[in-house]
Amino acid sequence: MLEEIKRSLAECGLSQKEASVYLAMLELGEASVQDIAEKAGVNRSTTYLMIESLQRRGLVSQFEDGAKTQLVAENPERLIASVVDELAGVEAKKQKLHEALPHLLAMFRSGDKPIVRYFEGEESLGMVRQEIGQTREPIWEVYAVDEDLIAGANTKGEERIQITKRLTGRAMMAIKPGCIPPYFDRRGFEVREIGYDTCPFSGDIVITGEKLFVFTSAPRGLGVIVESKEIVDIVRALYDAAWKTAKLWNPPEGWGK
């Protein structure tokens, strides 16, 4: 039960040692630092620091008893007030950021230099895929259908299908011999195939608006987003040249079932 209470206090923002000291004080009532430290199982110097932190939260008060300084825990209901105060502080910071955001974005996008963002790890790349899925502009995508893509589709298949339902544009695939493209919603897409034997690669490139997304098939997952009209125009021209030489792709019998 005591550990469960400590976890609840941790969720309110107290550290493990702060929680131990506060619980010890609740049990002891009026007590000295030495008694609190022994009850909490925390060394004396650390107990002083924890008490100072709890005092700042309004959870501890002290008084003089003759020549001794005694400490006492405040009513636990003060914890709720402490959380409310913290939430109010967070909301105030959030409001300040909202007010400053237009100026920050103006600085972020100032100048002619490209904006490059780098991502690593499946969670980060998932956020990038969501960013692509939310675009309202047509996308041009070229990707390799190989073992890495199929393995990823097996774990993210439904998510991929839901994203493609919201998109339109072009899809160009380089299909490795022996591999079958994972199912995706083809409605709204023109789909073509380029020869894997003549241009083998592994990964994915997406063009939409003035953004270029590049994903590798590295085990840990790597991705880059480039925001630059000039760079995207170059890649778009190369994509269009490859598109004109690609052949129409027809799914194999039973594909997607």
Write the layout of secondary structure elements.
Elements lengths: L1 H10 L4 H13 L4 H8 L3 H13 L3 E6 L2 E6 L4 H31 L6 E6 L1 H12 L5 E7 L1 H19 L3 E7 L13 E6 L8 E6 L2 E6 L5 E6 L1 H17 L1 E2 L9
Parallel strand pairs: 4-5, 5-6
Antiparallel strand pairs: 1-2, 3-9, 4-7, 6-10, 7-8, 8-9
Helix pairs in contact: 1-2, 2-3, 2-4, 3-4
Would you give an account of this structure?
This protein is of the alpha+beta class and 257 residues long. The chain folds into 2 domains: 2-75, Winged helix-like DNA-binding domain superfamily/Winged helix DNA-binding domain (Arc Repressor Mutant, subunit A), CATH 1.10.10.10; 114-248, Endonuclease Chain A (Endonuclease, Chain A). Helix content is 48%, strand content 23%. The chain is built from 8 helices and 10 strands. Strands 3-9-8-7-4-5-6-10 form an 8-stranded mixed beta sheet, with helices on both faces. Strands 1-2 form a two-stranded antiparallel ribbon. Strand 7 and strand 8 form a beta hairpin. The protein is elongated and about 95 Å long. 18% of the residues are buried. The model has no long low-confidence stretch (mean pLDDT 83).
Short description:
This protein has 257 residues and is of the alpha+beta class.
CATH topology of the largest domain: Endonuclease, Chain A
CATH architecture of the largest domain: 2-Layer Sandwich
State the oligomer.
single chain
Order of helices and strands: HHHHEEHEHEHEEEEEHE
- Main sheet? 8 strands, mixed
Q: Tally of extended strands?
A: 10
Per CATH, the class of the largest domain reads Alpha Beta
Helix count equals 8
Quick one: overall form? elongated
The unreliable regions are none
